[in-house]
What does this fold into?
Amino acid sequence: MYRAAPGAGLLMFGYGPEAFDDPISGATAEELRSRFAGWRLTDVTPGTNPVPTFWFTLRRDEQA
It folds into this structure.
């Protein structure tokens, strides 16, 4: 069961993997592509913070 209609948008803010000094913090565009099945990553915009941050825009697949 899906909680978002086909074509729905999702805007996520996240830290890049090198933002913190530990092996589990942060996310990459490739990780989001693999973890969000049924969603298409449409844009990655760098943030303006002193550490690596990103705005990730995803769109729900139309076939959902």
Observations:
- The chain has a mean pLDDT of 90.
- Helices lie at 29-35.
- Residues 11 and 57 are 5 Å apart (CA to CA).
- The first strand starts at residue 9 and ends at 15.
